[in-house]
Amino acid sequence: MDMAEIEKLKNTFPLLRELIALNEVTWFNPAITDAAEGLRHVGLTAEDVADASARLSRFAPYFEAVFPQTQITKGIIESPLSAIPSMQSALASRYKTDLPGKLMIKLDAYLPVSGSIKARGGIYEVLFHAESLATEAGLLSYSDNYAKLDSKEFRRFFSRYSIAVGSTGNLGLSIGIISATLGFNVSVHMSADARQWKKDKLRAHGVNVVEYQSDYSLAVEKGREEAENNPLCHFIDDENSTNLFLGYAVAGERLKTQFRDAGIVVSRENPLFVYLPCGVGGGPGGVAFGLKLAFGDNVHCIFAEPTHSPCMLLGVHTGLHDAISVQDLGIDNVTAADGLAVGRASGFVGRAMERLIDGYYTLTDQEMFDLLSLLDKTEQIRLEPSALAGMPGMQRILSDTSYLNRMDFTQEKLNNATHLVWATGGGMVPEEEMAKYLDVAGV
Question: Which of 167-176, 199-208, 339-348, 362-371 ranks highest by mean pLDDT?
Fold first, then answer.
């Protein structure tokens, strides 16, 4: 994209000047539609999500066998839900404003196996592939107890095949661990911003980690090249995979069950706002799709990105999606939020979900570090920086009167609202790494 094109875009979309200046911005999408209309454009259905959920249930006995920490949930990989009233009070003080409603957190940082939201989509796609191979070979049928997969016979069978993925960290962690456990030969192509401890953990599981001194896009490109040169290698495409997307989407119905069990009502008079950190878009896009299926027009999803990597906001706001990157604007895509260090958004997710995401905002790395420390002090919950991206969402929503009026959010509705921060990762961060995060905080 040449300079003349960039200048034309900046004149057409003045918000780009704020992005280029690395200022924190909030943008609510004027083109959102009702859930029924928006869901028609996704290309996937509730039946697809139900099929994914059933597949995860079939694998539950296997998870109980190989990951003992899942026995308490009978092999289902799911995270806890918690109210965080002390953090809500601290945020009100920090932002010097009232924050009516109830603030909660979805602790995907505590998901078993890999300690991040990627344990949903990443693991699901590997399971889909493993099941396809085993059933086609006549070694497995849907009626079997999948605990049988924990055997030398199946590990020997899967060792004939390879899996490749490009990752900034957490996706590679989830795919590497489950793939190696099943017996696959797995390569994780990791960008320069990936944390060393994540590389070390993968190698400890026997994963081939390939490192690059460039960003996420090159890691993905190299992973794709590996698969193209090996007919027995399956490439997991974080940018365009519908299986990844469906694995994330299962979270919607599960959250609905958790809310019901907790007595939390979601309705027109009791709206739900969900704040999702966004990198390439697959994780938050899939979760948002599942939430829209579960709650319809009563849930409002907002994506959060670092000021240095606002790829989804950029793609949706300009309508160019994956035809533009933050680097095209001179933004460096360098952020401490490694899982969000993506310069070019998923074109699939951007186009599929653009009518269903209420808004987008950016925040600085320092704000993430400060909120990380604040959450630790108020609720004794420790996350990695990217997982704090959703924490300012409540304030961003409640301070935008134009959006609130357009959506007919009366004060009574706001008093009854539930605000949910999707905490995407950090459960496996080593203590010494966490100490470094806390040292950077200014609170």
Answer: 362-371
